[in-house]
């Protein structure tokens, strides 16, 4: 005999936190909106720089505003991509251990490539 006399809704409460999903949802939307002007700026900049020699491009990257915008584009883009891939893994990978391993791996990859890109931008920008 089932001694639990709670309703189905009260039994379901506490089985997971809706806060994480809401945060993930909003983080993905905010990063997507932030990427719109950044990607447009980056694309227009690449078009304007086409045909420029290395010295001109290096001087452009050396501008503080450009360095900040490049770093923002990289960081926000990688974070947005990692959030999207996490949703795919959570939806389609059913083995919990594999799911966790893939999510952790994706985060490490995003951090690694983000740091590598930031170091490259700073080295070029500061003439290293």
From TrEMBL:
The keyword Transport applies. GO terms for biological process: tricarboxylic acid cycle. It is found in: Membrane. CDD domains: SQR_TypeC_SdhD_like. Its main location: membrane. One of its GO terms (molecular function) is heme binding. GO terms for cellular component: membrane. Pathway: Carbohydrate metabolism; tricarboxylic acid cycle. Its cofactor is heme. Keywords: Electron transport, Heme, Iron, Membrane, Metal-binding, Transmembrane, Transmembrane helix, Transport, Tricarboxylic acid cycle. It is a multi-pass membrane protein. The chain crosses the membrane at residues 26-47, 59-80, 100-122. The keyword Lipid biosynthesis does not apply. Membrane-anchoring subunit of succinate dehydrogenase (SDH). Part of an enzyme complex containing four subunits: a flavoprotein, an iron-sulfur protein, plus two membrane-anchoring proteins, SdhC and SdhD. This is Succinate dehydrogenase hydrophobic membrane anchor subunit. The lineage of its organism: Bacteria, Pseudomonadati, Pseudomonadota, Alphaproteobacteria, Hyphomicrobiales.
